[in-house]
Amino acid sequence: MARVKKRELPIIQRKAALLSENARVVLFRRYLKKDEKGNVIETPEEMFWRIAEAVAAPEKRYGVSDEAVRAIAEKYYDLMATSAFLPNSPTLMNAGREMGMLSACFVLPVKDSIESIFDSVKYTALIQKAGGGTGFDFSDLRPKGDIVRSSGGTSPGPICFMRVFSDVSKAIQQGAFRRGANMGMLSITHPDILDFIKMKEDLSQITNFNISVSIPDAFMETLKRDPNCLHRVTNPRTKESFPLKKPDGTCLSVGELFNLIVEEAHATGEPGVVFIDAINQGNPTLHLGEIHATNPCGEQPLLPFEACNLGSINLEKFVMREGEKTRFDFASFAETVRLAAQFLDDVVDATNYPVPQIQNLCLGNRKIGLGIMGFANALFRLAIRYDSEEAVQFGEQVMKTLNDEAHRTSEILASQRGVFPNWKGSSWEKEGRKMRNACVTTIAPTGTISIIANCSSGIEPLFALAFYRYVLEGERLPEVNPTFKEIAIERGFYSDELIEKLAEGGSLSRLKDKGLPGKIPQEVRHVFVTAHEVTPEWHLRMQEAFQKHCDSSISKTINFPRDALKEDVAKIFRMAYELKLKGVTVYRDGSRAHQPMALAGPEKGGAYSLKCPDCNSDLTFEEGCITCHSCAFTEC
Known about the structure:
- By secondary structure, the chain is an alpha/beta fold.
- It has 4 domains: 21-101 and 295-448, Alpha-Beta Barrel (Anaerobic Ribonucleotide-triphosphate Reductase Large Chain); 105-294, Anaerobic Ribonucleotide-triphosphate Reductase Large Chain (Alpha-Beta Barrel); 464-529, no CATH class; 592-636, no CATH class.
- The protein has 21 helices and 23 strands.
- Strands 1, 2, 3, 6, 7, 10, 13, 16, 19 and 20 form a 10-stranded mixed sheet that branches.
- β8 and β9 form a beta hairpin.
- α2 packs across α3 and α5 runs parallel beside α6 (158-172).
- It starts with 20 loop residues before the first helix and ends with a strand.
């Protein structure tokens, strides 16, 4: 680890940041400024002030005095230093620095020409160099074997070009703040859809891409009405439509194709499914064009050349204890929502966009993505079980409050600074609401920023109450969820023996008291459930609760037990469509060979999590470290 270089810079005289040791390590490794020799040259407090000043600076454009701008910066500092709110990683990394690219989510067009493809390759490199993630729809590319008249040859097809983008991401990784994450999407009506669906059968290929099938309502309605109907695909170059054929030459039905998607998702967790018509029904700027792709984790549908900056509020900070009872402070939460929404709107102006097309569309739509993290921890403190009606109702109430207050803030900002330039013709104009931002709310996975905030990720249930973190020379150290540890100590049942059993894969609800120094209260066993104890239906219901009051979409994994059947996955896909969700990602425990963040450790064949907490891509266990090949996430 690089040492902190002795500096002559004055220490910022503000309240110290409330950070755990893990948070400080993450900031030290990845976020704090370094000199040319790799020495860290700022403290976390100085980092937060750097960001606060840079993000507040655009307020001057709207007639705010220097004194008032500084007061706003102080508020922004407090938001971050208390871990009540944190922006996405590129803002933490780049605000107030030369690169200046603060957005996390991008979608780039991939049109059917060499010029378009390699322009997007170049833009991808520029975005990922600065820590952004990119999404692509490859459906416009002509299928494999189709004629290329200019050369007299044939096209290699979209999957071949996906490899080009993947190689660029790998090449840019070394010098980037974090490794590039991508989302690759293909319409279910593309002639190469079979190869795309089967792509992840070889997990060593295209590792820095998540993939999703883009499915229109027409396909799902046909699946319900007549699953034996032959599935037809269309050549995007010629517009010729024809039945999709298997390698043996026989035609494939709609039901058979759906079952193939289910089979692959059951086997590897991919592809995900995106209901593209539901996305465009919620597209506020449909007059500018349809949305065809999302960011790497799926929560942010965007137009080609559009970007979005994200930020999340830590719900755990608003659980208040009053005597023996706890409550959620909705008034303080609403106040924080209003300030955080203003913060993200300022980020739109503070960002140095990588290419002119992106700048024009971002300033034209001013999309922001305000969401939450720490949901599971908040439920723990409120003594609410995740898979319960009470939790679903609480989640919906929280999201409705966030959505309503963020929209009101956007309206206030519009009255002060003007509507987003593309407002005329948008769904907001049709509603008669003057808005500063085309989209305001999103639920992101909050991987690394939830580590910095010392809280649970997004709206996911906790993966484990305790797990082993592997350090140098294979040594393993147990890591405990801080909320659980605090409550266990307070209730008198915390012990090293308990943590060891939990880290070895034990479930608190089924753990026997025998051999433990203290007895675990039944009500605690009931509340502290983890992801694999929550049935897929409850996962999906929670996603639905948050989607009801969300402008964009939801990053959420629907977890399945190891012995889940393909029919169980099919049921969830169908259910997600009926609930009008915009997409769904599933993962069956144990369905991949490498699943780090061990409960028992790879040498013991224990259970593991699948996805990187930073970008939701595949993780591997290498040389004593958990590593994501799609971003810079590493835990050793």
